Amino acid sequence: MMTADLSLFHQTIIERMNALVAFLAPDGTILFWNVAAGQITGYPAGEVIGGSWIWKKLYPDPVYRKEITKMITNVIEEQAYLRNFETRIITGLGSEKYISWNTSEVRSPGGSITGYVAVGVDITDKVQNKRQLREREELFHGITSAAYNGIILLDEHSIITYWNPAAERIFFYHKQEAKGINVIDLLAPETARTQWQSVLTKTGSHELDARRKDGSLISAELNISWVMIKNRPHTIVIIRDMTEQKRSESQMRLLSTIVQTSQEAIVSISGSGTILSWNKAAEEMTGIPEESALDAPILDLIKLKDGEERIAEAISQSNHAVISAILPDRRGMEHDVIISVAPLSGGEGFSLLIRDITEVKKAQRTMIAYIREATARLKMPVEVVRENIGDILGMFYDDTIDCDAAALRLKVQMTHLAQIAETIRELNAALTGEGTDIPKAYEKFLLE
């Protein structure tokens, strides 16, 4: 019976096939089991032929076996064929393999079913490759979906084939809007199309402007790399939005310029009290160059005649403090200074702003001396005028008035009053800043 039924096949060829070939009786008994079947399953023909237990061995999970059996039964009842029906088996060595089955009925000349032919192809490598590819794709999508930077995949014509969530956030285009569009048409400003075309032909990092959906422009850093996908060249573009960084860099440059050109010494120090920055004014005020100041303890360089302990106290307690003191420099000069100590934001250290008020103090002392001198100069003519007017009034009261003598004395008082008025004018100009300087005569007198 078996020989007659197998006469449809070239038995020698079947034995040498790389695929599992089995012939089953209608009741499921194995009548034929080729060499490849034994190699694939780990159960040789001598053990298998004549029984039907092999299916429980290949499908040890009863639930899974029931599902497979039900599907096969349905196919048999419908007199159909199984084509590329994939199942998972457990071999005699305990390993897992995937088999793609193709089965058909074998009928006698009278039309009755005499058995079934099952051909199984070991597709384990194919399934594992698919699984690995799927896992890599899931990993790729997971990484790119979580990435902060925009990730775009382009085909050989610069058409967008992949557009990650960060690209959506940066450019405001949903992936359905971006995919299938030429990246230059989508993102390149009209004035930068040539630059974009050039950049996409090079690997590496490039900075250029990019256009968002709303028409606004951003500063973008593009990292270009090439990859082969399904034997076709593709371009991976990783885009970083540099707008905020550029703005921050610009602000930092501006702040640095302000700090370096400030006439006030500006010093930043770490929480431990070492110097982090030291501007030009600090160099000029102390006579200590920046390279000598950096990383040095602040209290080793700022030696005050009075107030040094208040700096240490402010630093140790992270407090704000305003300190008035005298700061000697390395040239032997002394500076009247006001030092403002303030904690840096984030608690990462402190800033010291040192204002040299030496000239202000000198001007204050000069002004005070000038006011005293002006007051003294006013006092004498005022007293003289008061006494002379008193004398003239006495003449009127005594009826001894001599008009010529009185007129002469009043004329003298006019001279005194003019002197008083001029002194008051000069004093007023000095106090209100209307004059350019203290009058030279007074300045010379005060500075002697």
Automatic annotation (TrEMBL):
PROSITE patterns assigned: PAC (PS50113), PAS (PS50112)
Gene3D superfamilies, alphabetized: PAS domain (3.30.450.20)
This chain's protein is named PAS domain S-box protein
A Pfam family (short name) is PAS
Quote the CDD domains the UniProt record gives: PAS (cd00130)
- Boundaries of every PAC domain copy: 83-135
All copies of the PAS domain together span 13-61, 136-190, 251-306
PANTHER family linked: BIOFILM ARCHITECTURE MAINTENANCE PROTEIN MBAA (PTHR44757:SF2), DIGUANYLATE CYCLASE DGCP (PTHR44757)
Q: Which organism is it from?
A: Methanocalculus taiwanensis
